[in-house]
Amino acid sequence: MSLSEPVELVRRLGGPERIGAIVKVEQAIDTYSAGYPRLDDRGIALDILLRDLARLRILEPDLDPVISEVEGYIDVLHRQLSRLAA
To answer: Could you tell me the pTM of the whole model?
Structure first.
């Protein structure tokens, strides 16, 4: 099973040279989630990203700091979706 594009980007960019990597990953997440126009589908897509990031955390424990930052960004997106749905 392959990882989604944003998660694979975390794997490639999340090494010691993280300058700008988080911004690139956030842009990839925005692009990925924009592919789901319905709010419910977008929420599910973000949940799938979180699941894939959890798998990546197990496979690549050195990426934990980057994964934590990306998960925080996804949490912000989930909160925005909740406000839009209300």
So the answer is: 0.78
